[in-house]
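Re: that chain you flagged

S.,

Sorry for the slow reply, it's been a week of failed gels. I finally had a moment to sit down with the sequence you sent. For the record, here it is as I used it:
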Amino acid sequence: MNDTRRTRAVLGVLLLASLAMITVDYRGGDHSPLRGLRGFGEVIFGPIEHAATAVVRPVVGAFDTVTGSPGARRRINRLEKENQRLRQQLRTGQIDKRRADELDRLLGTAGLGGYRIVPAQVISAGEGLEDTVSIDVGSGNGIKPDMTVLTGDGLVGRVTRVGPSTSTVLLATDAASSVGGRLESSNEIGIVQGAGRRSGKALKFQLLDSTAPVRPGQRIVSFGSQGDRPYVPGVPIGTVATIERTPGSLTRTAVVRPFVHFTGLDVVGVVVTAPKRNPRDAVLPPAPSTPPPSVPPTPPPSPPPSAPASPKSTPAPRTTPRG
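Prediction finished late last night. Pasting the structure tokens below so you have them in one place:
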């Protein structure tokens, strides 16, 4: 259609007519004189509008999804970070509670034995051939080489190297470790040697007297070193598990199950002052009570067997002598 003055005039007249009809229909409401024309328009153009909506709606939804996805992704990332932070707080709370419990047991053990300790935390494990760990205290905390290290359960080892703020501890399980030990409730002593954590037999106990009695279940404490270095007396070491029979040997060897879980060390204590008196067995936990062996009930005595009745004797027939 050419853009002429007549065309523009026709469009203007149509626009004015449309505005007039819209105004009349709006003011008339339900009683509008154009209500029939409006219904006719709905019948004609309604299906076309529905079809157009069905075609356009998926496109509009996809556009909204694309344009809104960065905001949704940011919300998801924020929620994931919040969940991760909450999980970390929960784990931290559980770890703190566990460490508080371990520290409480450690202080209880130190109090029973009369040891003055410096608490520490294990920060790394040795990567060489030695069974060692590093702890977060050093010379600045009063730590020196050849000091005893323990937990609330028992003996861990001894300090071998000291730095300004860290120290290295040689574990009792190391093959080069030797600790003087004493059997519970006796004066029998021997040497507790490490066999390596990977050997399956972490500790072995060699009695100096091959004739001394030893049985599974007996517990061992540290005998103590001269001058209380490197080991103070009375620290629980472990329980005798089995006795090894070695014919012709001058000593008896027992496999010892240690009290300390060496692969799960966390909170430890370094003994900086030895006890004034040997605590002997005072640091050991109460011995497990063994129930008395069950005795089967004694059956009631059976009545004595009755004597069999003796048969009656039949008198012999009397014979009359012949005259």
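What I noticed first: Residues 177 and 194 are 5 Å apart (CA to CA).

Talk soon,
D.
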